[in-house]
Amino acid sequence: MSDLTRTFAALSDPTRLSLVETLIRRGELPAGDLVAEAAISAPAISRHLKVLREAGLVEQRAQGTHRFYAVRPEALRAIVDWTMDHRAFWSTSLDRLDTLLALDPGEGER
Amino acid sequence: MSDLTRTFAALSDPTRLSLVETLIRRGELPAGDLVAEAAISAPAISRHLKVLREAGLVEQRAQGTHRFYAVRPEALRAIVDWTMDHRAFWSTSLDRLDTLLALDPGEGER
DNA sequence: CGGTTAATTAACGCAAGTGTTAATTTATGG
DNA sequence: CCATAAATTAACACTTGCGTTAATTAACCG
């Protein structure tokens, strides 16, 4: 299984996609906070986090008994790179991409 | 399972990702051509194509005994849309995206 | 019509994924 | 040191996914 298919596999589970989106939205969080938001048990979340970690989607930082998790931007870029590799195919016109870029969420830096 | 997780699930298998890339590269093809390129049996490919179809990633066109398959660009856009929704997160600077856009795949690809 | 080809569906076996509860590991604090 | 808390690992059950070969369906052609 390639790195990319492993990335897709990691995001193919609703619970894991949700974990990733939560970490993106709220930033680095301890496992316990993620468990609190989930509808399933702590061990189940723990193993989902392990899958995400092994796929390179999140990284773990230990502090005391806490394990802080955060999304690794590089992993998302791998997906972006793949779609961009085939942009000529899915983007018959640039309208949609132009619209998105026009939103320019990164306005500040640059 | 959301549409997006179903899309990721469809691309999480190496055989299916390969099928999609072949269809993007060579355009619409009959199932037989895809079987010829694969290392596994025709029934196996047939079912992978079914998964891709049910996920909305490919569409099927019948002509005689042949079934032509092609990738649906909208499905790839769903992925692009998701990544773009979180662009502010993974794109700390716009450099990479700028680089990709500058390649202008409209003329000559890589 | 009968035979051939393209493709799918059926039936089966086995590996992998996902949930639970119980047990274990590691660090904190009285 | 001992009790507690955070998190993971272990053990188990159940479902899903993926491959195979055999059987079936549908269209084409002499």
Automatic annotation (TrEMBL), chains A, B:
Q: Which residues form the signal peptide?
A: none
Q: Which domain of life is it from?
A: Bacteria
UniProt keyword list: DNA-binding, Transcription, Transcription regulation
The answer to whether keyword DNA-binding applies is: yes
What Pfam families does the entry give?
A: HTH_20 (PF12840)
For whether the record's keyword set contains Amino-acid biosynthesis, the answer is no
Q: Where is the HTH arsR-type domain?
A: 1-91
- Name it: Transcriptional regulator
Q: Which organism is it from?
A: Pseudooceanicola nanhaiensis
An annotated Gene Ontology molecular function: DNA binding
SMART domains of this UniProt entry?
A: HTH_ARSR (SM00418)
Q: What InterPro entries does the entry give?
A: ArsR-like_HTH, HTH_ArsR_DNA-bd_dom, HTH_MetalResp_TranReg, WH-like_DNA-bd_sf, WH_DNA-bd_sf
